[in-house]
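hiii so um. not sure if this is the right channel but i have a protein structure encoded as tokens and i wanna go backwards to a sequence. like what aa goes where. can anyone help
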């Protein structure tokens, strides 16, 4: 866990940031999912061959049609409706795992997971 980061489970990253639901996954992600037998995840990946030794694995696509999705298919709403959860938290893609990279990245992309320490208010003595 990144120091000072506390995920608010708001779903902002999965709902609003295109890289979360229409980005690329790593070779390591694919390998991990293959070892785990996660054909449900692998069915949502499209691999583009860009030349010798250069492949791009794009996610997430509708398995039946190959069309891009409009939101992350693994984002679930909590039963109490107080936020969201990741259905694949333990094995989510590396790029999801690394978000946000640092406080400024969070601020620039709308993540509220880093709390800026506020100064204590000055307490004035009674008059």
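sure thing!! here u go:
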């Amino acid at each position: 866990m990144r120091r000072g980061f506390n995920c608010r489970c708001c779903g902002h990253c999965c709902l609003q940031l295109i890289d979360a639901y229409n980005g690329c996954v790593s070779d390591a992600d694919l390998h991990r999912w293959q070892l785990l037998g996660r054909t449900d995840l692998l069915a949502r990946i499209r691999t583009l061959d860009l030349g010798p030794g250069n492949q791009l694995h794009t996610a997430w696509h509708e398995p039946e049609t190959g069309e891009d999705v409009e939101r992350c298919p693994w984002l679930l709403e909590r039963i109490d409706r107080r936020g969201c959860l990741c259905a694949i938290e333990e094995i989510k893609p590396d790029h999801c795992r690394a978000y946000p990279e640092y406080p400024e990245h969070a601020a620039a992309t709308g993540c509220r997971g880093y709390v800026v320490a506020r100064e204590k208010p000055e307490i004035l003595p009674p008059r």
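oh and Residues 58 and 84 are 23 Å apart (CA to CA).
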